[in-house]
Amino acid sequence: VYSEEQLTWLSGILENTEKYEPVFLFMHEPMANTVSGSYDNQGYGNVDKDSATAIRTLLKEHKNVITFTGHTQYALEADKTSYPLSKGIYHTGGVAHLWTDNNGAGYEVAGSQGYYVTVYEDAVLIRGRDFTTGEWITSAFYMFSTRPYIPPTPSTPQTVKPTTTKKPTEEESTEESQIETDVVIQDTPKRITFVG
Questions:
Q1: Max CA pair span of the chain
Q2: Is 178 in contact with 164 (CB distance < 8 Å)?
Q3: What does each C-alpha distance from 115 to 14, 93, 127 come to in angstroms?
């Protein structure tokens, strides 16, 4: 159960954060019906309904929150390890042991998994990692911009006067022999490439 004081504190933090600044929210237990292990037939969505409703409302209002939840120990390859609310709710796996899906009913498997989170100036990358094998879990990769996408806009047009190599004729010399052309130079959107 989250107290009114805790929810008011969280609301205040979110209200006083820049619109696109990423906020990381960590919850031990997930809200019901959000990520692996929290669905009704799995039984680990233990946040009470009133608190869950208040948190969901805050996440709908603030599109910059990245939420991590634990408790269920479900493997990162399981179905529904993320939930699309705000910047996402991500189930964190488990480091001591894992559970996995078996037609809705979980069963324990050996392993140790979690996330590497990298925060860039304008993006966040979340990468699943199997700590036992030392390999990346590509089905658990998430990347998103922390800034709104703004298409490149023209900078101040620059006037370019092409030069000619031929000597103008008498007729041409009375007219403008050089043409003024507006050239638009655009900023290139940043692209991040990850190798791993």
A1: 91
A2: yes
A3: 24, 8, 5
Alpha carbons within 13 angstroms on the beta-carbon side of residue 51 total 17
Condensed to tens digits (0 to 9), the pLDDT of residues 33-52 reads: 999 888 888 878 889 999 99
- Return the number of other C-beta atoms located less than 10 Å from residue 60's C-beta: 11
Burial string for 75-113 (b: 16+ CB within 10 Å, else e) reads bbbbebbbbebbbbbbbbbbeeebbbbeeeebeeeebeb
Q: What is the pLDDT of residues 62-108, one digit of tens each?
A: 999 999 999 989 999 988 889 999 999 999 999 988 988 765 556 78
Q: For residues 40 and 27, what is the distance between their CA atoms, to the nearest angstrom?
A: 19
pLDDT at position 148, please?
Answer: 74
Question: Which residues, at least 6 apart from 158, have a Cβ–Cβ distance to it below 8 Å?
Answer: 182, 183, 185
pTM over 0.85: no
